[in-house]
Specification:
The chain has about 90 residues and is mainly alpha-helical. Helix content is about 40%, strand content about 5%. The longest helix has 22 residues, at about 20-40.
Length: about 90
């Protein structure tokens, strides 16, 4: 990467860099961009995704069930026509 670009980005970011830091960061950023260029050459994957662990049937059918009798749960609560009364919201 060009040192002038690194200097402009540093100035826009309000970062003061010495000449040595400009050289170091321009080399490091250039290396990073080279690695991205290598990744761009990798073949595309046509599947939905790459996952080393097979994920199958992670969802279950939603079957409604009543574990507790509602009248048993409501017997000790203040209710109004089987509705639970809560505090008034303003």
């Amino acid at each position: 990467m060009d040192k002038q670009i690194v200097a402009r980005v540093a100035k826009a970011s309000h970062i003061q860099l010495s000449e040595e830091e400009l050289e170091k960061y321009s080399k490091d950023l250039g290396d990073i961009l080279d690695y991205f260029a290598i990744l761009d050459e990798a073949p595309n994957h046509d599947g939905a995704g790459i996952n080393p662990v097979e994920i199958a049937d992670i969802l279950r059918e939603d079957v409604p069930e009543e574990k507790f009798e509602s009248s048993e749960l409501l017997k000790d609560m203040k209710t109004y026509d089987n509705y639970i009364r809560g505090p008034k919201l303003v």
